[in-house]
Amino acid sequence: MRVVIATVEGITGMDVGAIFDFHDFLLDQARVDVDGPLFGQQKDPARQLKRKSVAVMDRLTANFGDRSQHIAYYDILSRWGCTSTTRLRSKTHAFRRGGITYLRDRLRERGAHHFDMLHTLLQHGRWKSVSSLNIYLTVDDKRVLELFDGTGNGAKLVSDVVELPPAAATDNDEAQYVLQTYGRARNDVVFVRGEGCHLVDAEGRRYLDMAAGIAVNVLGHSDPGWVKSVRDQAGELCHVSNLYHTPQQATLARKLCESSFADRVFFCNSGAEANEGAIKFARKYARLRTNFDANWEQGLLDKILRRGPPTKFVSFERSFHGRTMGALQLTYKKQYKTPFAPLMAGGTESLPFGDLDAVARTLRSGNVAGVFVEPVQGEGGVLASDAAFLKGLRELCDETGALLIFDEVQCGLGRCGALWAHQTYDVEPDILTTAKPLAGGLPIGAVLMKQKVADAMSAGDHGSTFAGGPLVCAAANYVFDTVSAPAFLSEVQRKGDALQTKLRAKLEGIPGVVEVRGRGLLVGVQLDRPAGPVCESMRTESNVLAITAGAGDVLRLVPPLIISDAEIDTAVDAVAKAVTATA
What we know:
The protein is built from 22 helices and 22 strands. It is α+β, with helices and mostly antiparallel strands. The protein folds into three domains: 2-177, no CATH class; 195-221 and 487-581, Aspartate Aminotransferase, domain 1; 264-464, Aspartate Aminotransferase, domain 2, CATH 3.40.640.10. The strands form five sheets. Strands 9-17-16-15-12-10-11 form a seven-stranded mixed β-sheet, with helices on both faces. Strands 1, 2, 3, 4 and 5 form a five-stranded antiparallel β-sheet that branches. A four-stranded mixed β-sheet has the order 6-7-8-20. A hairpin with a 2-residue loop joins strand 6 and strand 7 (198-201). Helix 9 (224-234) runs antiparallel to helix 19 and helix 20 packs parallel to helix 22. 42% of the residues are buried.
């Protein structure tokens, strides 16, 4: 099936009325009363209807058989301008023209499964004098168009079936087939191309990307050298089993180790996977460190009294380490975790960020395998660790034998002005996880570790089919070579300082701005209210993209590391305009 658009002209009032009647009939079938609980006392009835549309659509589609698709009432109503209860009621009353009439009868004659309307859009504002109707449909043949051609009421199909515009087609396909876990339905932007620090949507609009795919596209979009690396490698070899060697993976591993504290690297496909690997490695190391298996057979009493090997982890309030089951256990937000409990056995202590006393009490219990910490929290609100805190964690881990694990998935690889964020604190971890920026937009993750951790692992202890493939490693080698250059990192620090300085100057005196903070080009603007409306205003009014952090009250700016001074000025102006407009 495909999404198409057809234009019908010569429509009479009866034809239009029949369409309205059919719409009203469907609402009746779903027991949806526009004056009732679905819209009653709602500031935005169309949005409320959208939120409840899944249940409504399930009831509706029961009337149409297996081949029907959901009718997107939210899109219909919002396009008709039904943005308030009063306007919705008035237009709905105008739709009722004599009950279920012509269109319903035609549907019954031809079989309801031939009428599969996704969007019905009136392109004119005058309801009684409309002469042209555009109909968005999904069809597997043209028979549905016969409903509007040769009806005897003057309607005539005047255009061939053409493909729906890309944005609308994408929206339709996604609404029907993609699991809705990302909240993309809140906007209708469909991106089709990227150039440097800009994205281009299906309508040709350009946006300054201050989110960089959430700190992923460090070299921007379609960097020529990156494109050449990927294209050349794709023409040679994309994938081979990890039972065999590839030069791209080995070269990348050497570069990562030589640039850091690490002796060994394990490759994976994402930040969450990297943290899952770190959990396994830390537990295996703890088991061997305590000589648990050797002591397990000392006797029944020993078995009963022993607590087992250290299995617990420490993480911190406002932390984010991923959404897979182990990484989710480490993540702070309860709303992420509660629906999927119980999570990882062994448990996690979530302690106040920066509270060394709480860490000391927990580690000295003797049952902690590792401490996970982000040197700079990203989703948590762009909160940088204090140097004394990280050094204190290092000392406590050395004292108790727990591993110190730095999650640099977002803050690492140049983002904070140094190659690795922890290098600005002069503290080394035992394990480090990285992912987001490493391949500049392709999926890769890596777990960097000291030799003592690597020695605990054996062949078969961990693995991943697609990890460290030659294609993504070719991209990662190019990204690493570019980002690790001292001159490049110096520019990141300079531009990060400039971004914060200009934001502070521009936002001074604007109500609701609490603080501008960050490290390098990981910058947050703390507000005294939700930052979501600010992001939306930046997108719609200035064509600048940003994201939120913290409790939703921090505007997070994580642009490509190649951002220019002129683009920084554009972003700062957009932030100030949006913060002012939403105050």
